[in-house]
UniProtKB/TrEMBL annotation:
InterPro entries: DjlA_DnaK_co-chaperone, DjlA_N, DnaJ_domain, J_dom_sf, TerB-like. Keywords: Chaperone, Membrane, Transmembrane, Transmembrane helix. The keyword Coiled coil does not apply. Residues 202-267 form the J domain. The chain crosses the membrane at residues 12-36. The gene is djlA. CDD domains: DnaJ (cd06257), terB_like_DjlA (cd07316). Pfam families: DnaJ, TerB. This is Co-chaperone protein DjlA. It comes from Litoribrevibacter albus. The keyword Transmembrane applies. PROSITE patterns: DNAJ_2.
Amino acid sequence: MAKWLALFVGGLIGNTINTAALVLLALAGYLFGVWLERRSDPLLRHRKYLSKDQEAFQHLLHYSTFMMMGYLAKADGRVSEQEIAAAEQVFDSFQLDANGRKDAIRLFNAGKHPQFQLDSILLPLASVSRRHRALMKVFLEIQARMVIADGGRGDQIRRRPFIMIAQRLGFSEQMASRILRRVSARAQARAASKQSVMTISDAYAMLEVREQCSAQELKRAYRKAMSEHHPDKLMSEGATEQMIQAATEQTQLIQEAYQIIQEARGR
Protein backbone atom coordinates (compact mmCIF):
# COMPACT_ATOMS: atom_id res chain seq x y z
CA MET A 1 0.00 0.00 0.00
CA ALA A 2 2.03 2.88 -1.32
CA LYS A 3 5.11 1.65 0.51
CA TRP A 4 7.52 2.68 -2.25
CA LEU A 5 6.02 6.18 -2.30
CA ALA A 6 6.19 6.24 1.48
CA LEU A 7 9.88 5.39 1.40
CA PHE A 8 10.45 8.03 -1.25
CA VAL A 9 8.65 10.83 0.61
CA GLY A 10 10.08 9.92 3.99
CA GLY A 11 13.58 9.56 2.61
CA LEU A 12 13.44 12.75 0.56
CA ILE A 13 12.73 14.82 3.64
CA GLY A 14 14.44 12.67 6.19
CA ASN A 15 17.90 12.64 4.67
CA THR A 16 18.34 16.28 5.59
CA ILE A 17 17.93 15.73 9.34
CA ASN A 18 19.11 13.35 12.03
CA THR A 19 18.57 9.62 12.03
CA ALA A 20 16.14 9.63 14.95
CA ALA A 21 13.59 11.64 12.97
CA LEU A 22 13.67 9.18 10.07
CA VAL A 23 11.31 6.80 11.85
CA LEU A 24 8.67 9.47 12.32
CA LEU A 25 9.11 10.70 8.76
CA ALA A 26 8.84 7.20 7.35
CA LEU A 27 5.52 6.86 9.19
CA ALA A 28 4.46 10.27 7.91
CA GLY A 29 5.38 9.20 4.40
CA TYR A 30 3.31 6.04 4.78
CA LEU A 31 0.27 7.98 6.01
CA PHE A 32 0.77 10.45 3.18
CA GLY A 33 0.69 7.56 0.72
CA VAL A 34 -2.52 6.23 2.25
CA TRP A 35 -4.08 9.67 2.08
CA LEU A 36 -3.17 9.95 -1.59
CA GLU A 37 -4.74 6.58 -2.31
CA ARG A 38 -7.97 7.51 -0.58
CA ARG A 39 -8.20 10.72 -2.58
CA SER A 40 -7.53 8.77 -5.80
CA ASP A 41 -4.62 11.05 -6.59
CA PRO A 42 -3.25 10.59 -10.14
CA LEU A 43 0.07 9.49 -8.66
CA LEU A 44 -1.51 6.32 -7.31
CA ARG A 45 -4.62 5.87 -9.42
CA HIS A 46 -5.33 2.18 -9.79
CA ARG A 47 -5.04 0.71 -13.29
CA LYS A 48 -6.45 -2.60 -14.40
CA TYR A 49 -3.04 -4.04 -15.26
CA LEU A 50 -1.18 -2.80 -12.16
CA SER A 51 -1.48 -3.47 -8.46
CA LYS A 52 -1.15 -0.47 -6.17
CA ASP A 53 2.34 -1.57 -5.12
CA GLN A 54 3.39 -1.92 -8.75
CA GLU A 55 2.08 1.48 -9.67
CA ALA A 56 3.75 3.10 -6.67
CA PHE A 57 7.00 1.35 -7.65
CA GLN A 58 6.67 2.71 -11.19
CA HIS A 59 6.38 6.23 -9.87
CA LEU A 60 9.43 5.71 -7.66
CA LEU A 61 11.27 4.50 -10.76
CA HIS A 62 10.05 7.48 -12.78
CA TYR A 63 11.19 10.02 -10.18
CA SER A 64 14.49 8.24 -9.59
CA THR A 65 15.42 7.98 -13.26
CA PHE A 66 15.41 11.70 -13.92
CA MET A 67 16.58 12.86 -10.50
CA MET A 68 19.60 10.56 -10.60
CA MET A 69 20.40 11.72 -14.14
CA GLY A 70 20.52 15.28 -12.82
CA TYR A 71 22.63 14.22 -9.85
CA LEU A 72 25.23 12.49 -12.04
CA ALA A 73 25.27 15.32 -14.58
CA LYS A 74 26.19 17.79 -11.82
CA ALA A 75 28.68 15.44 -10.11
CA ASP A 76 31.66 17.23 -11.68
CA GLY A 77 30.34 20.64 -10.64
CA ARG A 78 28.62 21.73 -13.83
CA VAL A 79 26.16 20.46 -16.41
CA SER A 80 27.68 20.59 -19.89
CA GLU A 81 25.91 21.00 -23.22
CA GLN A 82 26.78 17.37 -24.00
CA GLU A 83 25.07 16.23 -20.80
CA ILE A 84 21.98 18.25 -21.64
CA ALA A 85 22.00 16.66 -25.11
CA ALA A 86 22.33 13.21 -23.52
CA ALA A 87 19.37 13.95 -21.26
CA GLU A 88 17.37 15.09 -24.29
CA GLN A 89 18.19 11.79 -26.01
CA VAL A 90 16.76 9.93 -23.02
CA PHE A 91 13.62 12.09 -23.14
CA ASP A 92 13.31 11.29 -26.86
CA SER A 93 13.80 7.56 -26.33
CA PHE A 94 11.09 7.68 -23.65
CA GLN A 95 8.79 9.35 -26.22
CA LEU A 96 7.66 11.93 -23.69
CA ASP A 97 4.91 14.36 -24.63
CA ALA A 98 5.18 18.07 -23.78
CA ASN A 99 3.93 17.63 -20.21
CA GLY A 100 6.06 14.54 -19.66
CA ARG A 101 9.16 16.36 -20.87
CA LYS A 102 8.40 19.31 -18.62
CA ASP A 103 8.06 16.95 -15.65
CA ALA A 104 11.29 15.15 -16.56
CA ILE A 105 13.18 18.45 -16.73
CA ARG A 106 11.77 19.46 -13.34
CA LEU A 107 12.98 16.20 -11.79
CA PHE A 108 16.35 16.46 -13.55
CA ASN A 109 16.82 19.97 -12.13
CA ALA A 110 15.83 18.74 -8.66
CA GLY A 111 18.51 16.05 -8.88
CA LYS A 112 21.26 18.51 -9.73
CA HIS A 113 20.30 20.89 -6.94
CA PRO A 114 23.10 21.25 -4.33
CA GLN A 115 20.77 20.22 -1.49
CA PHE A 116 19.51 17.08 -3.22
CA GLN A 117 19.99 14.00 -1.04
CA LEU A 118 20.80 10.93 -3.13
CA ASP A 119 19.63 8.53 -0.42
CA SER A 120 16.09 9.89 -0.79
CA ILE A 121 15.78 7.78 -3.95
CA LEU A 122 18.64 5.32 -3.53
CA LEU A 123 17.39 3.78 -0.27
CA PRO A 124 13.94 2.79 -1.60
CA LEU A 125 15.46 1.61 -4.90
CA ALA A 126 18.02 -0.54 -3.10
CA SER A 127 15.26 -2.12 -1.01
CA VAL A 128 13.62 -3.58 -4.13
CA SER A 129 16.61 -4.00 -6.45
CA ARG A 130 17.01 -7.75 -5.95
CA ARG A 131 13.48 -8.37 -7.23
CA HIS A 132 14.03 -6.27 -10.34
CA ARG A 133 17.52 -7.19 -11.55
CA ALA A 134 16.96 -6.86 -15.30
CA LEU A 135 15.10 -3.60 -14.81
CA MET A 136 17.82 -2.18 -12.56
CA LYS A 137 20.41 -2.94 -15.25
CA VAL A 138 18.40 -0.93 -17.76
CA PHE A 139 18.04 1.81 -15.13
CA LEU A 140 21.83 1.89 -14.71
CA GLU A 141 22.32 1.94 -18.48
CA ILE A 142 20.20 5.08 -18.63
CA GLN A 143 22.27 6.67 -15.86
CA ALA A 144 25.48 5.63 -17.63
CA ARG A 145 24.53 7.86 -20.55
CA MET A 146 25.14 10.84 -18.27
CA VAL A 147 28.49 9.46 -17.12
CA ILE A 148 29.92 9.15 -20.64
CA ALA A 149 28.20 12.21 -22.08
CA ASP A 150 31.11 14.57 -22.70
CA GLY A 151 33.96 12.09 -23.12
CA GLY A 152 36.30 14.23 -21.03
CA ARG A 153 37.65 14.58 -17.51
CA GLY A 154 34.13 14.83 -16.15
CA ASP A 155 33.55 11.21 -17.14
CA GLN A 156 36.09 10.01 -14.58
CA ILE A 157 34.59 12.21 -11.87
CA ARG A 158 31.08 10.96 -12.60
CA ARG A 159 32.31 7.37 -12.80
CA ARG A 160 32.94 7.19 -9.03
CA PRO A 161 29.40 8.03 -7.90
CA PHE A 162 27.98 5.83 -10.66
CA ILE A 163 29.91 2.80 -9.40
CA MET A 164 28.84 3.60 -5.83
CA ILE A 165 25.20 3.76 -6.95
CA ALA A 166 25.51 0.44 -8.79
CA GLN A 167 27.04 -1.19 -5.70
CA ARG A 168 24.26 0.15 -3.48
CA LEU A 169 21.80 -1.46 -5.89
CA GLY A 170 23.57 -4.81 -5.48
CA PHE A 171 25.90 -4.85 -8.51
CA SER A 172 29.66 -5.35 -8.43
CA GLU A 173 32.19 -2.75 -9.52
CA GLN A 174 33.07 -5.05 -12.43
CA MET A 175 29.45 -5.11 -13.58
CA ALA A 176 29.20 -1.33 -13.24
CA SER A 177 32.32 -0.92 -15.39
CA ARG A 178 30.90 -3.35 -17.91
CA ILE A 179 27.69 -1.35 -18.12
CA LEU A 180 29.70 1.80 -18.79
CA ARG A 181 31.64 0.07 -21.59
CA ARG A 182 28.42 -1.32 -23.04
CA VAL A 183 26.67 2.04 -23.04
CA SER A 184 29.71 3.75 -24.56
CA ALA A 185 29.84 1.19 -27.37
CA ARG A 186 26.11 1.49 -27.99
CA ALA A 187 26.30 5.28 -28.03
CA GLN A 188 28.86 5.04 -30.82
CA ALA A 189 26.74 2.48 -32.64
CA ARG A 190 23.64 4.65 -32.23
CA ALA A 191 25.47 7.67 -33.66
CA ALA A 192 26.82 5.63 -36.58
CA SER A 193 23.40 4.16 -37.29
CA LYS A 194 21.79 7.61 -37.45
CA GLN A 195 24.49 8.96 -39.76
CA SER A 196 24.42 6.11 -42.26
CA VAL A 197 24.98 2.44 -41.49
CA MET A 198 26.49 0.97 -38.34
CA THR A 199 30.09 -0.13 -38.96
CA ILE A 200 31.15 -3.72 -38.42
CA SER A 201 33.40 -2.70 -35.50
CA ASP A 202 30.51 -0.82 -33.90
CA ALA A 203 28.32 -3.89 -34.38
CA TYR A 204 30.78 -6.15 -32.55
CA ALA A 205 31.14 -3.58 -29.78
CA MET A 206 27.37 -3.37 -29.52
CA LEU A 207 27.19 -7.10 -28.76
CA GLU A 208 30.34 -7.01 -26.58
CA VAL A 209 32.19 -9.69 -28.55
CA ARG A 210 35.52 -9.89 -30.36
CA GLU A 211 35.58 -9.85 -34.14
CA GLN A 212 37.24 -13.28 -33.96
CA CYS A 213 34.44 -14.80 -31.89
CA SER A 214 32.85 -18.04 -33.01
CA ALA A 215 29.33 -18.25 -34.42
CA GLN A 216 28.21 -19.87 -31.17
CA GLU A 217 29.72 -17.08 -29.05
CA LEU A 218 28.10 -14.49 -31.29
CA LYS A 219 24.67 -16.09 -31.04
CA ARG A 220 25.00 -16.45 -27.26
CA ALA A 221 25.92 -12.76 -26.90
CA TYR A 222 23.03 -11.74 -29.15
CA ARG A 223 20.49 -13.80 -27.23
CA LYS A 224 21.76 -12.51 -23.89
CA ALA A 225 21.57 -8.88 -25.03
CA MET A 226 18.06 -9.40 -26.39
CA SER A 227 16.96 -11.17 -23.21
CA GLU A 228 18.23 -8.37 -20.96
CA HIS A 229 16.28 -5.75 -22.91
CA HIS A 230 13.22 -7.76 -23.89
CA PRO A 231 10.12 -5.62 -23.25
CA ASP A 232 8.10 -8.56 -21.87
CA LYS A 233 10.78 -9.35 -19.28
CA LEU A 234 11.05 -5.73 -18.19
CA MET A 235 7.27 -5.37 -18.09
CA SER A 236 7.06 -8.37 -15.76
CA GLU A 237 9.45 -6.57 -13.40
CA GLY A 238 7.34 -3.41 -13.34
CA ALA A 239 9.04 -1.21 -15.94
CA THR A 240 7.31 2.01 -16.87
CA GLU A 241 5.92 2.42 -20.37
CA GLN A 242 8.71 4.93 -21.06
CA MET A 243 11.42 2.46 -20.04
CA ILE A 244 9.81 -0.16 -22.29
CA GLN A 245 10.12 2.32 -25.16
CA ALA A 246 13.80 2.89 -24.38
CA ALA A 247 14.43 -0.86 -24.17
CA THR A 248 12.69 -1.39 -27.50
CA GLU A 249 15.06 1.12 -29.07
CA GLN A 250 17.97 -0.89 -27.67
CA THR A 251 16.66 -4.19 -29.03
CA GLN A 252 16.36 -2.63 -32.48
CA LEU A 253 20.03 -1.60 -32.35
CA ILE A 254 21.03 -5.06 -31.09
CA GLN A 255 19.14 -6.70 -33.96
CA GLU A 256 20.74 -4.33 -36.46
CA ALA A 257 24.22 -5.11 -35.10
CA TYR A 258 23.62 -8.86 -35.30
CA GLN A 259 22.32 -8.62 -38.86
CA ILE A 260 25.34 -6.56 -39.97
CA ILE A 261 27.74 -9.13 -38.53
CA GLN A 262 25.83 -12.03 -40.06
CA GLU A 263 25.90 -10.37 -43.48
CA ALA A 264 29.61 -9.63 -43.15
CA ARG A 265 30.21 -13.30 -42.34
CA GLY A 266 28.19 -14.36 -45.37
CA ARG A 267 25.26 -15.80 -43.47
